[in-house]
Design brief:
By secondary structure, the chain is α+β, with helices and mostly antiparallel strands.
Length: 161
């Protein structure tokens, strides 16, 4: 087991070059608290919600504090990975589902919110579109993201954590 820990710790260091390591975070928690705390410090990335998501979250009475807690759990791998930087996460006592776009090295963006009873799964063509959108968000520079915030397309959350 110690040999495995050494491999995991080296892999953590290699992955921090790009700044986002959700894909392998389960093994960090399972085998080493050191890796988990190191991961938390290194993964301090910006988090946003889109204007549409913000409207849907307000109507569902989902606070920004709850969204920040959800992002912290996403950081440690507690979300459904749909591939291509698209994650599905439960919200609001399992009544709602959030789609979060979080590609490697890109900001985490709450993109879509839906009630669990309204939609059981995401259609294949919608998932493909979300993956393309995740690629687009990944290509944005910090000044472009800041411009989206100024124009109220994005709202930054969790900025003090």
């Amino acid at each position: 087991m110690l040999r495995f820990l050494g491999v995991v710790e080296k892999r953590v260091t290699a992955l921090f070059g790009v700044g986002f390591a959700t894909e392998v975070s389960f093994c960090f928690i399972k085998y080493s608290n050191w890796c988990y705390t190191y991961l938390e410090r290194k993964m301090n990335q910006r988090t946003f919600k889109t204007r549409k998501f913000s409207q849907m979250a307000d109507s569902a009475r989902i606070s920004d504090e709850m969204l920040c807690r959800v992002i912290q759990s996403l950081n440690v791998g507690l979300a459904v990975d749909l591939g291509g930087g698209v994650y599905k996460k439960r919200l609001n006592n399992n009544q709602h589902r959030a789609i979060v776009l979080a590609k490697v090295g890109a900001p985490r963006i709450y993109q879509y919110l839906y009630a669990k009873n309204a939609l059981s799964n995401i259609a294949a063509e919608d998932l493909k579109a979300l993956k393309e959108l995740a690629k687009f968000y990944h290509a944005l520079t910090n000044p472009q993201i800041d411009q989206l915030v100024v124009e109220n397309h994005f709202f930054e959350i969790c900025h003090d954590q």
